[in-house]
Amino acid sequence: MVQILWKSSEPHSPAKDHDLVELRLVDLGETMKSRYLVREIHAFWSASGQQIEWKGYKDHRFGTPQEAHLSFVTRKAVIANAGFEHTTVLD
């Protein structure tokens, strides 16, 4: 599951700068003890440079899909409350 949260109401405009946060919930496979990963990636779209500038990321690992999903939903709510209220869902 991947969702990108934006502050801008026009997040896909290449002519405007945008702050964004990408949230990922990843199943790492059965060989990992902490099998599920929630990754929060902070970035900035630079209209002048026509590129994404990565600011950093945070990883949180979980043993069950329920724990990972709860963390994903909680992180998304915190980020939305910080002004990133527009969402793009990727498959």
Residue-averaged pLDDT = 90
Q: Segments where pLDDT lies below 50 for 5+ residues?
A: none
Strand order of the largest sheet: 4-3-2-1-5
How much of the sequence lies in strands comes to over 45%
User: Which structural class do you get from the secondary structure elements?
Assistant: alpha+beta
First CA to last CA: what distance?
Answer: 7 Å
Major sheet details: 5 strands, antiparallel
Along the chain, the helix and strand elements come as EEEEHE
The number of distinct β-strands equals: 5
Number of helices: 1
| Radius of gyration (Å) | 14 Å
Assembly type of the chains comes to: single chain
Overall shape: it is elongated
Overall description:
With 91 residues, the protein is of the alpha+beta class. The chain has one helix and five strands, in the order E-E-E-E-H-E. It has a five-stranded antiparallel beta sheet with strand order 4-3-2-1-5, with helices on one face. A hairpin with a 4-residue loop joins strand 3 and strand 4. The protein is elongated. The relative contact order is 0.28. The mean pLDDT is 90.
